[in-house]
């Protein structure tokens, strides 16, 4: 029993019992998906706003369920985390994304950005697994960005050691969903990162809330001072993009520039901006 939810994702009918049964069902099916490799990767462009060209692509996991259709990562990533499957899933996504990206002509001038769960960072062999993957497909470490949410910093010392090793290889680190967790400003200068991704809730506010404009403007100055590149997430209309550029934001992503989809649907050079 399935209904089509937002963005065409599968949703389960309310008649299905919640809780334990549902968790067990998801877990079993996710294990099957890992074995069958029915997990795949969608890509969303990350755009250099001024130059109007694609600077990078973010890999987003998709689960093509045999009966339910495409299941959203917000549903199955937490299940994978609780079931202890996230390391395996994360590595599968990373390997697949690296191989597909390396075969894409646009990879010559762009980077690949992959989401990583905090628990993956606790595996001491993670950096060498990533390095081996890059070597296998022939990508340079500077072509890879790994995205971690600021909540990963809760486990500070261990995660920070892993991040340092990744950066020694030349891999860049992005703090994802910045401004939604509790770590925030206090950790920013201690956290070994190169990029900060501003959560889309801030971006959505700028068109109607002058305070949001001040907050973003101030954040941008701070990031600049700390040597961090800021990426604005969730840009949906040209007015938001124009305001962000005015605030000094150089990089952004969102439905305005493309929905997640196959790599070869992405063109590196964008058409000129529409006049607003
Ligand atoms: P995220 O890393 O913050 O990824 C951005 C999410 O926002 C994506 O949802 C994307 O489709 C959506 N998005 C992009 N532009 C817009 C926009 O303009 N407006 C709106 N409303 N949404 C936009 P998606 O693909 O459903 O992924 C949800 C989350 O699942 C991701 O959030 C990430 O935290 C997690 N995730 C996805 N793939 C992986 C993965 O391979 N590993 C891990 N650990 N987490 C993943
Ligand atoms: Ca992300
Ligand atoms: Ca994000
Ligand atoms: Ca998110």
TrEMBL record:
Chain ranges of the EAL domain: 23-274
Protein name (database record): GGDEF-domain containing protein
Coverage span on the entire protein: 452 to 727 of 727
């Amino acid at each position: 029993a399935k209904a089509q939810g937002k963005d065409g994702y599968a949703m389960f009918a309310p008649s299905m019992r919640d809780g334990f049964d549902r968790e067990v069902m998801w877990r079993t099916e996710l294990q099957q998906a890992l074995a069958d490799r029915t997990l795949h990767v969608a890509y969303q462009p990350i755009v250099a706003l001024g130059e109007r060209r694609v600077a990078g692509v973010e890999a987003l996991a998709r689960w093509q369920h045999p009966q339910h259709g495409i299941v959203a990562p917000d549903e199955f990533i937490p299940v994978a985390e609780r079931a202890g499957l996230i390391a395996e899933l994360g590595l599968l996504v990373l390997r697949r994304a690296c191989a597909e990206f390396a075969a894409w002509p646009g990879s010559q001038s762009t980077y690949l950005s992959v989401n990583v769960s905090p628990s993956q960072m606790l595996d001491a062999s993670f950096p060498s697994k990533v390095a081996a993957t890059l070597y296998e497909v022939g990508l340079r470490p500077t072509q890879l960005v790994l995205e971690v949410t600021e909540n990963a910093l809760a486990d500070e010392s261990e995660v920070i050691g892993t991040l340092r090793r990744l950066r020694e290889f030349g891999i860049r680190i992005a703090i994802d969903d910045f401004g939604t967790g509790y770590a925030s400003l206090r950790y920013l200068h201690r956290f070994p990162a190169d990029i900060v991704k501003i959560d889309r809730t801030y971006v959505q506010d700028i068109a109607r809330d002058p305070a949001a404009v001040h907050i973003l403007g101030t954040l941008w100055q701070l990031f600049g001072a700390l040597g961090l590149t800021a990426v604005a997430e969730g840009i949906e209309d040209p007015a938001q993009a124009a305001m962000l550029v005015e605030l000094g934001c150089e990089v952004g992503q969102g439905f305005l520039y493309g929905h997640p989809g196959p790599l070869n649907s992405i063109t590196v050079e964008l058409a000129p901006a529409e006049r607003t």
